Amino acid sequence: MSPAARAGAPAATLTQAKIPGARLFRRGKVRDVYEAGDGLLVMVASDRLSAFDVVLPTPIPQKGRVLTRLSSFWFERTKAIAPNHIVETDLARFPEPFRSHPELGGRSVLVRRCERIDIECVARGYVSGSAWAEYRKMGTIAGERMPPGLLESEQLREPIFTPATKAVTGHDENISRAQLAAMVGHELAKKLEAVTIALYRSAHAFALGRGLILADTKFEFGFGPEPNPAPPPSKVSDPRYMASGPLTLIDEVLTPDSSRYWDAARYRAGETPPSFDKQYVRDFLVASGWNKEPPAPKLPPEVVEGTSQRYLDCYERIVGRPLDATDAPPVRTGGR
Ligand SMILES: Nc1ncnc2c1ncn2[C@@H]1O[C@H](COP(=O)(O)OP(=O)(O)O)[C@@H](O)[C@H]1O
Ligand SMILES: [Mg+2]
Description:
By secondary structure, the chain is an alpha+beta fold.
């Protein structure tokens, strides 16, 4: 049985939403974001998958639903640490025209539109990925000296904050904490770090209880809407940022696309543990000899199936039930 059939309806993949009459706010690599009036946005997670910053031509069944429902699960669990942008997860309670589009169900959220802080707030508890590459070469992570002799994938004594700028095009660029402070001010930099680390610690402990290691993850924050007579600040360095609404967790949280999860049972320091993220697809693409320039090659059915299954497995491990069995009433964490 295909993962799509196993996870129940709706089985069809969604590559790009088509909602006549709705105004597109932003089309990201994965999400189509629409204006919903009243300072609200509808974020639709498609089944698109990007690797090496290129969107692949083959959609991954259930991916958008996994990302949306896993994010909603975590937003609910972390709301005491950081207020978030969620207003509504039940499509039937969305404004028109969205609620008349059943294909959006389970893969869309109604959120408060926030003034985004263009920083990727990364927390790392283990030495992996680009942090391992930097440490091996220079003995530092995000420019800060680390103890000698760390192994690949080894747990750090304390989780660390390694921010990056959100690049408009191309790759995000790592910046030091001092650079972040210079960009957004000391007060906001300290707050972003403290909230990021608190979110990481809490999620790491919870995931470990479910047999998963949260090696690292990335958060995005914005300032919530509040009556503000001045035009919204357009630059992160604008001091009016500090005068805007409450610091709010936005985007997606603690999904396989934004996080590195490992199976705790298969974890060994000194090795690269298999992960639930896109590594499986990346391995296929590298082996195919693709030069990483668009267009990307189509994925064969077994890679599509294997990838879909990894997303569904990650959801099931964290939430504790398979995606199709989570028919509990939708959560509403925000008020209007
Ligand atoms: N509450 C919000 N207010 C404003 N922008 C948001 C909010 N939540 C998410 N976003 C933005 O919407 C976009 C989501 O689309 P996505 O496919 O994740 O984009 P990307 O290609 O940048 O990863 C991102 O640019 C994200 O920063
Ligand atoms: Mg994104």
